[in-house]
Structures are given as C-alpha cells and as structure tokens.
Specification:
The complex is a heterodimer of chains A (418) and B (396). Chain A is mostly helical and 418 residues long. Chain A has 19 helices and 3 strands. Chain A is globular and about 90 Å long. Chain A starts with a helix and ends with a helix. Chain B is an alpha+beta fold. Helix content of chain B is 59%, strand content 10%. In chain B, helix 5 crosses helix 7, helix 8 packs antiparallel against helix 9 and helix 12 runs antiparallel to helix 13. The two termini of chain B are 36 Å apart. Classes of the chains: A mainly alpha (418), B alpha+beta (396). Chains A and B meet through helix 2, helix 10, helix 11, helix 12 and helix 14 of A and helix 1, helix 2, helix 4, helix 5 and helix 6 of B.
Amino acid sequence: MISERKTVIAREPFDPGVRHRNRRAGLWRRVFKAATAVGIVFLAALLVSIVNDAFGYVAIENSIDPAALSPDGTPLAALPKDVLTQILAANVSKGLFRRFEHDHPFEDRTQEDVYGLILEHVVEPKIVAQWTLWDSLTRRRAIAEDVATRFPDAELRFETWLDVAFITSPQSADAARAGVRTAILGSLWTIAIAIVIAFPLGVGAAIYLQEYATENAINRVIQTNITNLAGVPSIIYGMLGLAVFVRALQPLTSGALFGLADPTTANGRTILSAGMTLALLILPLIIINAQEAIKAVPNSLREASFGLGATRWQTIWHHVLPSAMPGILTGTILSISRAVGETAPLVVVGASTYITMDPSGPFSKFTTLPIQIYQWTARPQSVFRNIAAAAIVVLLGLLLSLNAAAILLRNRFSKRAL
Amino acid sequence: MAMAENERELRTLARTGSDSMRGLRRRPRVAETLIQTFLFICGAISILTTVGIVYELGKESLLFFTRRQWEQTNKPLAEDIEADRTAFEVSTSGKPLPVGELIRIGEEIMRVQLVEGGTVTVERGVRGTTATAHRAGLEIQAAQDVTLVEFFGRTEWNPQIGKFGIWALVNATLITSAVALSVSLPLGLGVAIYLSEYATEKARATLKPIMEVLAGVPTVVYGYFALTFMTPLLRTLLGTRTVEIYNTASAGIVMGILILPLVSSMSEDALSAVPNSLREAAYALGATKLETAIKVVVPAAFSGLTAAVIVAASRAIGETMIVAIAAGAGPNFTFNPFKAAETMTGHIVRISGGDLSYNSLDYNSIFAIGLMLFVMTLTLNIVSQHIVRRFREEYE
C-alpha cells in the first residue's frame, strides 16, 4: 500500500485514484441500499401474496340446482321453515333425517338452521376452482370463459374469504364454511394463561437480578442461564411442555385433580398445558426486557428514596417499578406478540387437529390461530390455502393491534412519568 | 437504614418511658425477607426450566438408546419345536440371524449360539422369559438396539424398519441453514452497513420499523409464504423437473428472510457501537465512505458481527415451522437443495403432530433428536457470547 502511494505521488501531486475510489464507493453505496430494498421487497411480496390469496373468484358447483328444489321458484332462503323441512325430508335418506330429528327436533329448529342443513346435505355446494385476487381483477373474462367450458354447471362468484362469518364461525371440514372462532378463542385463552404466569414471575426475577442480587456465583449462573434460555429453539420448550405438563403433571393439567375430568380418559393436552409452555417460552424474554427497563431507572431516584428512610422494597414498589413500568409493559407486550405467533411448541404439546367446540376453560382441548394456519396450509387441497391466507390476515391484525397497544401504553406512561 | 424507623423507635421509647436500649436494635423485617425470598425463587425458576429441559431430554434419550427394539427378519420357523429343543431348522428366506445376539419367537427370547445352514443352535428362555413350544411358521424377530454408533454413523432414518441414522435429518437442517445464511448474511450486513453508515436520520426512522415488522411476522406465515410463493417462483425459474414441490432451497431462502432482521439489527448495533472518532480519523486521512466502512468500522465491530452470524446460525437450526411446511415430510439424505428432505425440527413436529403415545419408540426418538438440537444451538449461543466477551474492543 505504501509503495503504491509512492508511485502515485511520483506521477502526480494529486491522487488520480480518487475518481476510481469514489466510483467504487458510489457503487457499493448502491449495493447496500439495494440490500435494504430487497428486505422491503420481501416484506411487500409477503403481504401481497397473502392478500392475493385471501380474495378472488371461485367456481362453485352444486349437486342439485337449488332453484329446482323450490316448488314455486322462490329462492330457498326465502321459503318458510316447514316447506324447507319437507324439501330436506324428500332429498336425504330416512336415517339421516331421523338423526337430524334426534340431534335437535325440527320443531325447535330455526328457518336458517334448516336452510343450512339443505345447503350442506342436499345442495352440497363444492368449490371446484379458485383464482387469486390478481387474476380475478385482470383476467375476468378469461376466467368466465374457462369456467363455462370446464365446469358448465358451476356458478362463478367473487369470494371474500376474510369476512365476518369467517371470524365468527367455528372450524369446519368444508373450506367454504370454515372459520377461526375456535382458534381465536384458543389463542386468547393460552395467551391469558401465559401472561398470568409469566408476567409476575418475569418481573419478579428481573427485580431480584437488578435490585437485590449481589455479585456471586448463584446470581451469575441465573443471569447466564436466562440469556441462554432466550436462545433455545421454541420447539425444545414444546418438548419440555410435553414431558412435564402434558405427561408428568397430567392430573393437574387435565383437571382430573379438581374432579373436572374423568381420570381414566384424562388427557393433559389442554389449554392449561399450552399456556404454561408458552409462559416458560416467554419468561426469559420478559425478564431480559424488564431488566433493561429497571436498569434505565436513574440511581438518584433510589438514593433519594433510601435517604428518606424507605426500605428496599418500599423503594422498589413506590419508585423504581412505577418509573420502569412503561418499559416493562412494552417489553411484555412484545414478548406476548411473540407467543401469539408461536406454532411449533404448541403442535408438540398436542394441539387438537380438529375441534369445532369453543374452549370452555383451561382444561379444554385447544387449537390456536397459528396452528389452524399450519394445518390449513399443510392440506393438499388448494382451497384451504385461501382460508389459511384469510387466517393469516386475522393473525397479523391481532399482532398489529398488540404492537399498537404497546406503543400507546408506552406513550401514556412516559407522559405521566414526566 | 431507615431513618423513619429509628424515629418511630425513639417515639416508642419516649412513650413507654423505658430507658433500656433494646428498642433501638435492628429488628428483623419479616416481610422484606419474604419478598426477597419470593423474588429469588422467581429468578431461580429459570434455572429450573433449564434443569427440566436437560433432565427430560436426557432421560428420554437414554431410554431411546437403552431400549430394545425387535426387528422383523421375515424368517419363519421351519418346524414345530418343543420347550427343550435347542437346535432347530429355520426357513432360508429373510435376513440372516446374528450369532451371539438375541432373537425372539412369540414371547420367548433366545440367544443365538451357532448358525449352520438352516439349523440354528440357541440358548432357550433367556432374559427372564420361559422356554415354550412353538409352531412352525412363526416369525423370528431379531434384537435391534439403537447404538450411538448407528445413531451418528448412518444416513438413513426410518423408524418403521429400525433405521436410526441422525445424519438424514442433520443434513437437511444443515442445508436449510446454509441456504438461509447465504441469503441473510450478505443482505443483513448490507442493510446494517447502509443503516449505520449511509442512511440519513429520516431514512433510518422509516427503515428500522420495517425491519422490525419483518422480524415480528410469525414463522408459520413465512412457512405459508415459502410454500405458496417461493416454491412456485423457484419452479417457474428453474423448471418443475429440477425443483420438487417440497424442497429445502425454498424453505432456506424464506428462512433467510426471517433471520435477515436479526442479522441486520445485531450487526447494526455492533457497527453503531464503534465510536465516531474512528470514522472521523479515517475521513481526515482521505478515505471514502466505503473505505471507512469496510476497512475501519467493520474490523472494529468484528466481534459483534461474528456474534450476529453465530446467533443467526443457531436461530436457523432451531427454526421449525418454515421447514415443517415447505421442506418436505420424510427423511431424505440428499445434498440437492431442490429435493424434499426433513429437518430435525420438521421431523419432531410431524411425529408429535398426531396423538403420540408415551413410551413409544417415536416418543423417545424425538427427544433424542431434541437433545441433539439443544446441544447444537446451545453450543453456538455460548460460543457467540464468548466471542463478544473475549474479543470486545473497548474504546473508552
């Protein structure tokens, strides 16, 4: 390098390499900028591909034309209940009709209920093809022609996979009627349990490490251990949950201990196990975030409190915690949003593959939103991809509102602290 | 301690008029001690978690390696044998019987002493079983132990036929991680250098939240993205014959996007920690921005950058949902990233997805894989912490 510069100096007083070096600097500057752009492009592609699948045209084929069922040509949905019941009785087997009667007598059923049965068992609408939003918008005519030639009996309809019915209806084997209510409730239950367990423990541990712990071997081990736990893959927590909560603590987690489940059929694969597993998973994150928040509280505050004669706990409770609270809450909410999106540990703990009943308590079987997305994505029929995309939009919406809550909380508390 | 406390003591003294000094002694504060103990327990729970992980993974893995499996030999008995016969004819079909090893017919376990053509000499009723009569045509099973040598020495994983070579799974994990790192390292470092050295305050303020959003997207969503966007894209670009529907390349690329924010934010922290005086010195010597960044800032932040790389690798190895959805369902020892292969995490998720019964071979096997995974990621994490501590450049 030195020799190089010597030759340069010998030729000219000013370094002629400057232009070349500047050009190279400019080029790389663009490269670095492009790297950032690629990140943004990926994010955009991710969002676009999800929205692209969550809406679009579908071709629906009915086993029987609903118009042919109606005696006088009025639409089925507008017919009174007894006419609908007659139609149903005429078109399904006697055994099936008796089973409906047995499940829920027709006298008590509503008109919509009977209409739903006709749709499900007589009309049997089946989605035979579906298109993405992009195709639906740009190739409308081609799609219509395609449907006319390939599925002459099919009806082409613009389907909004993500709608109110999708959020409020339970899971179903039929993609067109499946919803995420069970999954949302399962997610809320598990997260609530995780927060109830992990928040006090995490904040307590952080207080201990920041305010009480002296420099000794045990405390160093605890601190190193927490750092390492934060890096353990989440699936390992799932296996811990499977071995400890689901299997070893089965009487507790299945509710058999409290007489809520039959001990012979008790199963530890419940919301409680899932919640406890998630609690262990987010505990190190909460501790680390809370520690940072407590560390940021100025020492003068503590010293002033001690100086006025407060005990250590009084100082922590009345002075340190209130001023660290915005930071602690923000960190906790961010940890929770991590837990909301966790899938792998809950699959290992034993989420149910198919439940249509709302969870009724901590001892119910469970499924959560990410698990529902996983199962729908893993199905071979492509129509399930559409509802998976719709469920992803719901999940991202949930996460977004959590993050917004974190920001709001932080702003509100920091104003008060000032 | 406690001025108010002392004051109270003094007041009590004054009220009671006692002249003894006992009231001035430090009184034990029961509540404070209790609170401190409770807080200590909170901290200690994290230790309990680690102990729990190590204990459960270790226990079940030990069961996996000490448990005896019985493998079908497809070799039936050729004649009826009584309880006291020690030499008998077996069919010539099926696998050869191993001399010195255990075999099982029905409930009875025997030890093979000699094999001559179709005649087998055995020791009857070993391992606590009793010798009984057996009919011709009964299947002979051979003992199959999962040894560490087999576990680490073979490349086929197929529990149904007693093949437990972990390399089939480790190999897929390494391929997806390598693809992920080759996507995320250059991009992540580029983003970090851009954000810390080039970007204006305003650009940073918009770009950093975008990276955080990228980091906050659940992994199952990335899995969906890999299967419905990246795989079709790869298949369009490279042809459907080269690229299978499930492949490790697509999972790896998307995993790279997933860990991109991790790499970029850790690297950016390391780069920002380099004091400005170093940059200014370089500029004063006439270095361009690029030369300052590459020759001064990056070397100064090297330990932090290395740590970022290692943490990214650890994250990639432990990543589950993307590979479970997009990489394929079935162990496959291949070096071709466009073929389907199941990673360690993917296998664990698939096996435990159903109603897995405890004490089964599958149950034990996923814990052995989990232990392997835990050891790998823990090692990487410890190494990264060590690098940060050991090679940290102090500029104060």
